Every structure is written in structure tokens, then in C-alpha cells.
Amino acid sequence: MKVLAISGSTRQLSTNTALLRAFQALAPADIELDVFDRIGEFPVFSPDLEGLHTPDSVIRFIEKISVSDGLIISSPEYVRSIPGGLKNAIDWLVSGEAVIGKPIALVHASHRGEDMLAALRTVLSTVSSNFSESIFFRLPVMKQTPDSIRESLMTSANRPAAEKFLKDFAAFCRSQKSEAANAIAI
Ligand SMILES: Cc1cc2nc3c(=O)[nH]c(=O)nc-3n(C[C@H](O)[C@H](O)[C@H](O)COP(=O)(O)O)c2cc1C
User: Which domain holds residue 139?
Assistant: First the structure.
């Protein structure tokens, strides 16, 4: 199973990116978890740039989403909402088919950010019919280094919940895949 883990932060020492990378170390052999931390490369979305004019960076992003069985997103809150870069990346997906029906779940690297989470949940349940609000994992590691985040995820206090999150999300992805296959067979 292929899972694309998208960071909503473009910061080099991002805690959200670090948390997604820490998940890579936990993922079982049957989950290939690819971390995407390059939303900062996309130009500001405009319908005028779609179709033949779609930038290569965006085309590659959409291809990664198309071949994935599910998306995990982890994002900071900026000014009580979704960071512009992440919203821009989502805007690039709206007129295509890659994200429709794609299983999506959130992880979160802060003890704060409820307004961003609420806004992101609204946006993701609009762009995909398979956004899961109930499959969610939070590790409050704001301002910590990538090394300490990895260590924190691996502790006996946090690892079981992180593994359960991955297991639940993988099961959700599989169930949506088999529902889609059954719908095609009918
Ligand atoms: C421009 C800016 C605006 C922010 N606004 C908020 C905010 O409204 N609420 C909040 O809880 N944190 C806010 N923060 C803090 C970030 O959400 C927080 O530091 C987060 O953990 C950064 O994630 P990262 O390490 O993945 O970049 C803001 C940070 C920046 C740079």
C-alpha cells in the first residue's frame, strides 16, 4: 500500500514534516510511506494555469496523489487557519480527479491549532468523499527538533497510539479500495 504524507509546512526544521518522517520508521513493511514536503514549489493556483499550462511540479504532485492509496496530512496553524501554501496545494487538486474519493486522515504536531484543524476538515471533506475525521493522531511537539520528535514517537507512551493510527488508516484505505472495486464490478 502506498501512502503519501503531505506536510503543510515549508520550514526546513518543521515539526509537522519531522512527525511524518518519524512515522516512516514505524510503518509496517506493507505500507510504503512517502513524505512530501515541497508544497512551497507550487505557484499560486489560477484556473488560467491549468491544463496545458499546469507546472511540472504540480503535475508530479498530482501523479503522486493518483498512485497513492491514501493521504496523511500534517500542518501547522497560521493566523488561526490553514497555511496559504497548503491551501494552495489543495486548490490545485480541485478540478482534477486525483483527490476525489481518496482516503485522507490528519496527524498534528501541536497542542494548539484547533481553528486550522476545523478549517482543514471542512476543506478535505469537500474535496474528498473519503476524508476520515475519526482517524486522527496528535503528538504535541511544537518547537522540538526532528530527532526529539522521532524519539518521542517511539516511546512506549506514544508508539502504540501511532501504530494504531497507521493500522486504522491502512484498514480504511483497503476498505475504500474494495468498495470502489465492487462498484466497478456491478
Ligand atoms: C506566520 C505564523 C502564524 C502562526 N499562527 C498561529 C496561530 O494562529 N495559532 C497557533 O496556534 N500557532 C500559530 N503559529 C505557530 C505554528 O502553528 C507552530 O509554531 C507550528 O508548530 C509550526 O509548525 P512547523 O514546525 O511544522 O512549521 C504561527 C506561526 C507562524 C510562522
Answer: 2-185
Q: How many structural domains does the chain have?
A: 1
Task: Give dist(CA 171, CA 46) in Å, integer.
Answer: 36
CATH number of 93's domain: 3.40.50.360
For the Cβ of 9 lying below 6 angstroms from any atom of ligand 1, the answer is: yes
Tell the residue nearest (CA) to atom 30 of ligand 1: 78
pLDDT given at position 45: 98
- Return the ∠ at Cα 73 (arms to 68 and 78), rounded to 5°: 150
pLDDT 10s digits, 81-117:
999 999 999 999 999 999 999 999 999 999 999 999 9
The CB of 144 under 6 Å from ligand 1? The reply is no
